[in-house]
Amino acid sequence: MTKRNKLDFEAALAELEALVSRMEQGDVNLEESLRLYERGVKLSHHCQEALRNAEQKIQILQQKQGKEQISDFPSEE
């Protein structure tokens, strides 16, 4: 993924979900499975990076407001 052709988080996640679904069907040959897996790893890393960047931006904004840490959402249990 080059800078010009960079996917946004939602598009990358949707493509990753489609790849997983396709691979779970089990009708893909070995070579295609490896290609899909490699693409899935790249998409997964892209999504993780986007989430890390978003978390950093939130931390910066909270620090500017005088809050030091991000709080987890309360669990629904």
From TrEMBL:
Keywords: Cytoplasm, Exonuclease, Hydrolase, Nuclease. It is found in: Cytoplasm. GO terms for biological process: DNA catabolic process. Gene3D superfamilies: Exonuclease VII, small subunit (1.10.287.1040). Its EC number is 3.1.11.6. Pfam families: Exonuc_VII_S (PF02609). GO terms for molecular function: exodeoxyribonuclease VII activity. It is an enzyme of class 3 (hydrolase). It catalyses: Exonucleolytic cleavage in either 5'- to 3'- or 3'- to 5'-direction to yield nucleoside 5'-phosphates. GO terms for cellular component: cytosol; exodeoxyribonuclease VII complex. The keyword Repeat does not apply. Belongs to the XseB family. Bidirectionally degrades single-stranded DNA into large acid-insoluble oligonucleotides, which are then degraded further into small acid-soluble oligonucleotides. This is Exodeoxyribonuclease 7 small subunit. It comes from Nitrosococcus wardiae. The gene is xseB.
